[in-house]
Design brief:
252 residues, mainly alpha, Hypothetical protein af1432, two-stranded antiparallel sheet, two-stranded antiparallel ribbon, 9 helices, 4 strands, globular
Amino acid sequence: MSAERRGNWMQSFTGVQVWPLDPRIEDFRIEDIAHALACQNRFAGHAREPYSVGEHSVRASLAVDVSTCRTDDQRRKVRLAALMHDSPETYLVDLPRPIKRDPSMWGYRAAEERMATVIESWLRLPHGAFEWAAVKRVDAVMLVTEARDLLTIPPAPWGHGQGAKVTPLAETIVPWGWRETEARFLARFNELVAGDEARDPRGLHYHACPACYRNMPCTMACTIEADLTENGVDFGSHARCDECGEEPADVD
């Protein structure tokens, strides 16, 4: 019998039990993180159009300054930390800065720190990687860029409570949408871990439902070698999600 966990559990996208107040390495799936962050809006939904934490994260990993890094592995780790710095919000949700930094929210911040520490270990990153100076700076750069491109005219000048005074990116942000964001997040993760990250310890794999695109955990006894197509997606009937039903039979 497993040791009792602190607090109650929640169900993840892929059907995993996760205890947000007592996280463990075996709880995490990159599919859960990519999907949840792609569906979770920045600015508590107050942007002019939906813009997700997942897109913010991918863009941060592409924009982070790695000029002071001496090796390719250092550059990879900084970019990975930038991609995953908001990953605790997969389970703890994104709180606007004025709420998160209020003294009354110390319990939330403690839970976020615990979650970040365990995820850093899961990613084989040093403790505190999500707080590296380069990551914090690109987070601030993304914030002011997003505010410029996605929020309405501010009702008052921004101060430290709203965001750091840094120079925004030159490019204009045009939101991707959650499906593209999820795909880009997973692709960026795969690029940065280079096969070094252990996936689902239960040996599960995932199929994209051809009808609605949802990435569903496989519950059948298929194998990568025997039953999946060249691009890793099986479009057979069991790849479809429950809502879409079985794939219709071919008609001659």
